[in-house]
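Service request form, structural biology core

Requester: graduate student, group of Dr. S.
Request type: structure prediction, single chain
Budget code: on file
Notes: please return the result as structure tokens.

Sequence provided:
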Amino acid sequence: MPKAIERSLTVAAKHWITPHLIRVTLTGEDLADFPQDSESANCKLLINNGAQGTVTRTYTVRSYRTAPQELDIDFFIHEAPGPASGWAAACSLGDTIRFKGPSSPKLVNTDSDWVLLAGDMSAMPALEANLERLPPDTKGIVVFEVVSAEDRREIAAPNDLEIRWVINPHPNTPNETLFEAVSAVAIPRGRVAVWIAGESGCIRRLRHYFRAEAGIERAHFYGSGYWQIGMSEDKHQISKRDETMAS
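Core staff response, request fulfilled:
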């Protein structure tokens, strides 16, 4: 696997999308060779965390515009902000940050009759990027877990795709909110594709449900744990690697 390109980028704009989601727009000459159609791909932000030095945090490419070379990253601002979300909330225009990536986009399998997408606010950028790429005649359901009713908003999606919202005001506390909402969806007959992301404990349970109980084919299933309750990203990434090697 080729080494990820490191870039130095500058904050060009920032604004709050909802009470718990902020968008930071980055720009710079280092984006000249940035690949198009990278929406939903992972990237790495290298954050100066004071005495702890530089820490790396994983985020999603929300959108990229070749002219004028602008890259949008959405940050979920939760109860106890980490290094990256804290940086996003505090950064000012002209601030710089180092960036690595992107990886390949993570997209739902559209060779299907019906799709189910779901995730919490950490997965919202990837979910929205997926929805924007779906064929206009796509049928299915998307479930968004948000912290408050005020975090609900207009989402671009195919007309025949139903959007459902569930409220979870305390996502950092063990809960069943997203699992119950997603596992309650009636799966139709035919080729069904599933794309889910969010808190690792929930995704682990949903992975078992869809693969072992709902019978979703491996090629039509994507599930990723973006974070885990009670763990820093560093420990979470180690846990994910251990889980992958054991599976």
